[in-house]
């Protein structure tokens, strides 16, 4: 019995990578603004200034493009925060990260919510592959939060379970982002994140 393997995609040229990224970036912005259901392949083609042959050369269908957008948002949102997440091994580091998140929502005028959470909320019940991809992005985010908390725990500064605490912080963050989006007000996010910092501080040997 032989096992069939999927062929590896051909390595893109530099120009090909740029074209593909232009399409993904345009699709990500459209899906952030209008949702996945409100974004058509024709919309993406026009926004990316790409031809139909270019669009379908890189993405066989809309689902393939959606998966690429999830990967893009994973790298943009979570990957972009990794330098700050690497410094979450102190209350000061947590405050700096939370301050960044609140200011980012102010800059966006509280519109759009979390790009990853919004994709997950829209696709979780209709697209199993997308749900798994979004889950992976959240796991990466949770892992980044957990790393700093583990460091505090290993130094004897944190009494609480880093695993549970990281999950609690991420869940609270997502809820705060959703309410901030709905109310067009950063206060829900500010209050939620402050409560999380206070909760962590209450379990540490440092103020």
Automatic annotation (TrEMBL):
SUPFAM superfamilies: Homeodomain-like (SSF46689), Tetracyclin repressor-like, C-terminal domain (SSF48498). The keyword Cytoplasm does not apply. InterPro entries: Homeodomain-like_sf, HTH_TetR, Tet_transcr_reg_TetR-rel_C_sf, YxaF_TetR_C. Keywords: DNA-binding, Transcription, Transcription regulation. Coiled coil: none annotated. It comes from the Bacteria. Residues 40-59 bind DNA. Residues 17-77 form the HTH tetR-type domain. One of its GO terms (molecular function) is DNA binding. It holds the Pfam family TetR_N. PANTHER family: HTH-TYPE TRANSCRIPTIONAL REGULATOR LMRA, TRANSCRIPTIONAL REGULATORY PROTEIN. This is DNA-binding transcriptional regulator, AcrR family. It comes from Streptacidiphilus jiangxiensis.
